[in-house]
Specification:
Oligomer: heterodimer
Strand content of chain B: 15-25%
Helix content of chain B: 25-40%
Largest sheet of chain B: 8 strands, mixed
Largest interface: A-B, 43 and 45 residues
Distance between the termini of chain B: 48 Å
Helix content of chain A: 25-40%
Shape of chain B: globular
Strand content of chain A: 15-25%
Order of helices and strands of chain B: EEEHEEHEHHHHEHEHEEHHHEEH
Structural class of chain A: alpha/beta
Number of helices of chain A: 12
Radius of gyration of chain B: 21 Å
Strand order of the largest sheet of chain A: 6-7-8-3-9-10-12-11
Number of strands of chain A: 12
Structural class of chain B: alpha/beta
Number of strands of chain B: 12
Chain lengths: 362, 339
Amino acid sequence: MTTVPTNDQPLLSIRDLKVHFDLGSADILDRAFRAASRGVVKAVDGVSMDIFPGETLGLVGESGCGKSTLGRAILRLTEPTSGQVIFRNQDLAHLSSRGLREQRRHLQIIFQDPYASLNPRMTIGQIVGEPLETFRLARGAAAEQRVKELLETVGLSQRYIKRYPHEFSGGQRQRIGIARALAVDPDFIVADEPISALDVSIQAQILNLLERLQEQKQLTYLFISHDLRAIRHVSDRAAVMYLGKLVEVADAKTIYDEPLMPYTKALISAVPVPDPQIEATRQRITLEGDVPSPINPPSGCRFHTRCPFAIEACSEVEPQLVEIKPAHYAACIRISPSEPHIEDVAPGAAPGLEISQKPDLT
Amino acid sequence: MSSTNRHLLEVNELRTYFETEDGVVKAVDGISFLLRRGETLGIVGESGSGKSVTNLSIIRLVPNPPGKIVSGEVIFDGQDILLLSPEQVRKIRGCRIAMIFQDPMTSLNPFLKISKQLMEVTQLHLGHSKGQAYEHAIKMLETVGIPDARTRVDNYPHEFSGGMRQRVMIAMALSCKPELLIADEPTTALDVTIQAQILELIKKLKQETGTSVILITHDLGVVAGMTDHVIVMYAGKIFEQAKTTELFARPGNPYTKGLLRSVPDPTAEQGKLYQIPGAPPDVSHLQPGCPFAPRCERAEEICRREFPPFVELTSDHHSLCHFAQEVFAASGSPEGTRA
């Protein structure tokens, strides 16, 4: 594990990033008569955060919360609707395609499904070598040499260079995907659920590989996962996302050991622990109901429909991400820096209400 | 139903092979276990370990060809299921033995209303009339916690979320009050908060009905919280079987030990995660000797040469390993289990 960065200059700053998907009109007649769109999915709805050089920021949430869309929007694999992604004093969200291409060299992604993310008609050598060619970093024998080195780096034999993806297991394919991402010597990698599709014994191998590479190459990761155990293990800081918004950001250990948000608490409590003694005795907070649809997310705090602590005001006021404890941010009107523990807050009280009603305090 | 035999299910030396272009795949190769009434048995293993095929064999759903149950016995309440005629099996399947599968979307028919799919089960097995079956379907949906069951019963599967669909599957499985419920990765496709809901539901219904459960999963955390006994499978074999509490506290097999150590422990300090090297073997080309030997840190010459014995460590704890006693003894020491 790398140490938490002391450098205060973030590598990447995300400011009020939004990604909305317009569902469009139902059919051609509707469009002809200019009927209202069927709705807008607010997949990412105003996310701001900083990622510091050399750190791993874990992004956790349930399916549909927008975590993958956020990761993709940073690299503009999905076009952001508004907001900024500042990388080395340039706003990636508003760069021209040529300017973006230059910057993409420094920002890469590893995908979840190692079966779908490798072209089945290309050899491993072509797959890993393609970025070298695209960015004119090496060609011919030099490129082949570089590909061989990359394969060794991720723990694959150089002999595999002429083989096709179907000849490899899931874990090996994920290594190939990692080698491809490393080919251009990036500074920042979005790892989008890199271990979810893998067997338990292979997951540990890939996590260790990612950590080793981070140390060797001073990489910065945005590690996206629904698995809190993995997030806690690899991340320096963690951010919890719910329906397009960040609801809690803190040191990964702190977020796991002393979560402030009712949602985070429920999420942690839902993770089964591989220890029968703990499982037999611990009290589980079971959330009622499903994640609401992001098309018409609940008003106010989006979690209020499932929150055991919700009060009237929660459905009216949209909570802001506030620094409740040093370097520990949470978005809940029922807690405040002076009253950080929701269990101790008087019934019906909302000490954080005032802070959230004042805009732009974060 | 005879209440004299304590064991609801007894599987003896079950072998299920698949004929493939690559040769014979011994997906399940000599599995034996017992399931007591009212007990929950967990079967853990990685993909390709044979855990799902074991259970398809129990309910005679192995696709044939290419699959074939080569030998063995599956004694359910005194009857060997493998000797029954297809008609007799059909009477047991879905009624006395029910199943829930991993993907609740593909296991429901997208063209039929939920009501129709739930009614089919009780009309067939319990001889319900249409009216009775409809009322029963609503009652079952209420049991599994679907709000507003009376209107929801006439919805189509796509109108339900993943968690709700899995609840429908459970309602269907429990319609005939089965004696045995086989749940094959029932929560793998679901989010953690929904997983917690479904596991709680299975636990609650099990307590109420006294159904025995076989829970197949790759998640050791799920096993820890849900089961009484555990079987660990690898390459078509049982590598270890024990009481759940004992297996986690004192594993007697290097593979189990490795699996337990490779799960990140949120309560422990971060360090390098333990990893089992290599990948699960190709079961169509197994070498002689122990199938785990190439990945095992304890392996010696004998492991690569001779197939390991199934060692009895205690009366209720067995391990397939040449060094089972030694591994078991080491696990008992304070630093043994979690390095």
